User: What shape does this take?
Amino acid sequence: MPNYDALISQLIEENKWLKKRLDIALNAVAQLQEENQRLKDEIATLKGQKPRPKIPPSTLEGAKSKDKQNDKNKLSRGKHPRRKKTVHLEIHAKNRIKPESIPVEAIFKGCQKFTVQDIILRPYNTMYELERWQLPDGTYVTGKLPKNIQGHYGPQLVCYILHQYYGCRITEPLLFAQLKEIRYLVNEDTMDYIESIKPSHWLGGCLLSYTKDQPMSQMEWETFLLEINIKSEGDVKLATEAALFASLIANGIPKDLGVHGDDAGQFNVFVRSLCWIHEERHYRKLIPSAERGRPTMSRYLCQP
Assistant: This one.
């Protein structure tokens, strides 16, 4: 009859030995991974690139995270103060509806309000009749269009197209078909004209027309933005940058001024040219596999 006690003792010892070997193997793998990363960083430094950044562990889920600290100050569900969601909603039309049948003895007790939000897309065309007066010397004086009118397309239409094209990424054919369905008189030249408009320049021009080109302090500018319902931080920043951009052009800065920089979006103003140094960074990451290609790459990267 086999001795099970001795067999169990042997298995326990082998299990302990295997665990030790596993710990040694895991430590060796960790050391090799660190050495491998160190060598990668060294190669990147020799190639003029940045090594891998040291990213600290995330504190989003820790005890000191802002979310958990804010959770302590939050009210539990059902204990929030009740408020009406439509109390600040602008009402454009009111429609009173009576019941289908009202008995003679019924007493009127007011109205139960039910708010419906909707949107109306329709053309709104304006014809400006510019008066012409003939002077005694035979010349004419003619009325001028408002400053916010730039061409045959109003600011609301241009704003809508720019938002759809740049903000919502609606393609030009789809946007063109949408405008024709709303019965706007547009053609391909219309889309080409509006596509050529710099959004920041157009927005800044509209803002300057509202301010009547009067200089403003920072407090006056912020008050003006609140008056035209521009309140969020992102919208205030966008409007301020656009106004500064349009103000430069209005004060004589040429529209074809060259701006030299990288491919970042904040440099997409005036006429942009990309920096060759930033373009060269992509080629520095290439390692030619053939020996004959390495001298060519070195000569190319060393060019002034």
In short: The radius of gyration is 35 Å. The first strand starts at residue 132 and ends at 134.
